[in-house]
Design goal:
2 copies of one chain form a homodimer.
Chain A (H helix, E strand, L loop, with lengths): L1 E9 L8 E8 L2 E6 L11 E4 L4 E4 L1 E6 L15 H13 L4 H17 L2 E6 L4 H11 L2 E5 L11 H8 L6 E9 L5 H14 L3 E5 L3 H11 L3 H7 L7 E5 L5 H10 L2 E4 L1 H6 L7 H6 L3 E4 L12 H10 L13 H15 L16 E4 L12 H8 L5 E6 L2 E5 L2 E2 L4 H11 L5
Parallel strand pairs in A: 1-4, 1-5, 6-7, 7-8, 8-9, 9-10, 10-11, 11-12, 12-13
Antiparallel strand pairs in A: 1-2, 2-3, 5-14, 14-15, 15-16, 16-17
Amino acid sequence: MRTRYYNALILAGEDREVREGEMWVKDDKIEAVVFDGRKSEELFDSEYDCGGNLLMPSLKDAHTHTAMTFSRSLADEFELNDWLFKAIFPREAKLTAEHVYWFTLLGFAENIMSGTTACFDMYMFPESVAKAAVEIGIRNVFCGSPNDFGGMDLIEERYLRFNEYDPLVSYKMGFHAEYTTNKDNLQIISDIAHKYEAPVYTHISETKAEVDGCIERYGKTPAVVLDEMGMFDFGGGGFHCVHFTDEDIEIFKKRGLYTVFNACSNLKLSSGIAPVKKYIDRGLKIAIGTDGAGSNNSLDMFREMYLDAVLSNVRSDKDGLIDPFDILKAGYSGGAHCMGLSDSDILAAGKNADFILLDMHHPNMNPRNNIVSNIVYAGSPVNVLMTVCAGKVLYHKGVLTTVDINEVNKMCSRLVEDLI
Amino acid sequence: MRTRYYNALILAGEDREVREGEMWVKDDKIEAVVFDGRKSEELFDSEYDCGGNLLMPSLKDAHTHTAMTFSRSLADEFELNDWLFKAIFPREAKLTAEHVYWFTLLGFAENIMSGTTACFDMYMFPESVAKAAVEIGIRNVFCGSPNDFGGMDLIEERYLRFNEYDPLVSYKMGFHAEYTTNKDNLQIISDIAHKYEAPVYTHISETKAEVDGCIERYGKTPAVVLDEMGMFDFGGGGFHCVHFTDEDIEIFKKRGLYTVFNACSNLKLSSGIAPVKKYIDRGLKIAIGTDGAGSNNSLDMFREMYLDAVLSNVRSDKDGLIDPFDILKAGYSGGAHCMGLSDSDILAAGKNADFILLDMHHPNMNPRNNIVSNIVYAGSPVNVLMTVCAGKVLYHKGVLTTVDINEVNKMCSRLVEDLI
């Protein structure tokens, strides 16, 4: 199956350049990105007129808890600790595989409609999540989430099983957080990571209280404690990374770890503002995530990118403005590399056909003084005309093609009642 | 012309309640909002099935410079002072009535597509703005903008002329800012405001440097200086209000002035974070604006509402979370009252038919644990299915009905070249 996407503006993604061109897709891969007007020697099965709109790599949500759509706009009155212990954990105790399947579908539907084709998901009932991902056609990378409350015995089994499950599904080592995982369990995780030479990912330095607690326990910050245990010997990354010391930054730099920003969640839960500019200046690898819908409350990567570009402007220690292209690239490429999807990062021959078409005729994209700035500072899901993952059109002009959203809404509306 | 909007969820807007019902519109007014199933005695000219989606009052952009769409994504590398003096002012010097007409149309198109039906606009070439407003069908309230560089001789003439121009157009007294207007000129403005018993509006305490400068000049903050001159004897309001002292807050309280938040602009220009929660707790009247596209870079009131609900969470002096309904109400009602459009505030018999239809089937509005929270924390222009102003449908399912957006984009693309 060969499809030609023509009459397009193209941000291929290696750099910030936007050029007129066309893209040829064969099955699930990009066959060619064409800027020189050359013609294909073979016939296409279908041709799509992009109408002068923008083809660019799709967005990658590098930290989420997809099924937490169940908790959207629930308990908005709590800060992180109370929100977790009073509102979320009691409800999570009632979740079944069926709940997670439907609420994950709901989350994936929102991801797809806002231009995201891959999620780095940390949650429960992975069978339900994997089933939902394959059915709807999105890439799901699991991030292991064991902690003292469960999951320690499943690390290897899940790692091996879900890395063989389906081309759309993969699995990375991880754990919930230092503050929910004792040192014996952390050592077990580090040992398994060494056995497989695997990168490891975790929530880290999300709140000041978390860092203070770790220092009280061990006299060191979470990044130091974990690094000293060999946790990051094969890379990985941290989610949130709001409250890093210079030493933490150096560890992330030395180990090549990804800092994954979750600005909306950090605002809503009063966790603070990550020093995005400082991390970029120090050369850290960056990616962007939405966190779960319970603490966001949307799964809108455009809003995240916007905030990552402007929010740290109001930190007292800021030293200059952020280049919006750094943020956009983190959104489509940094996230891909962070979660091991290096073939989904940019538009180029041989890469995965994971891309979006953005409406350049919407007033918010005009005039075109700077297309990258327009996308980062003014773009929103309203600009997403089409979302394609592995060559398959998952969304086009308001219609989800692989899921009945009304059925999903109806099921979620019914199932959320079980959790009260 | 009588139209029935049925099969709807309705947030009428007096309180946070959302109920099933229907709304009857006669010409430019709301005839009835019906929750009890009663039938109309007369026939309707047309009936619209809302499909279970949400009717609510439209949003009001209570501080903007609409034509500044010309500067969207231009000079993103500057902070406020450099941005104004190096990038904006030199280009503004080249603007003509034609530029302002087309760039205002572009801005209005974006306003309408994101659910806004009234703009409190402070800019140049008011004839162009008024013409654009009446043509596209949006309400435009001018905010006078004289300062030491011009406009002082036009205050009364414009005030009288544009308050008689068209039902969609009105004019409020105002001036650019204390730091651009000397005391003689400020006194003239105050005197004219007294003559007409008119409220007065201005940029105020947007940056710390502005406040420091005023204290250096007069030994007092801008709010104190202006209030002592009688500027606010008949009410009015301030745009930005980021750096207020307790005394400033008391003046705004005592005079019943509106504080108009512009969170996106304040982030982008590194101006700071307004203490939204503190102002609400002290009982100040609040409204929300986008500021111009040059410093935002969008005109998206959903993003503003979201930020006003969460951003001040990360201020060190915050004392509790913000009720999202306070913010939503500021978005549709506070803004209306701020700019003198008290008949456009809520959905009720006799009020102006200024409303929007929000897509409740989009995944970001599900499940419906709390519809108000969903709108404020997860809503975006992607949810706007329809925008109606003065009974007229200006936007419906992706299509602007009163303007050819491709022509506007084309003209703006050409005209922006003149300004370089």
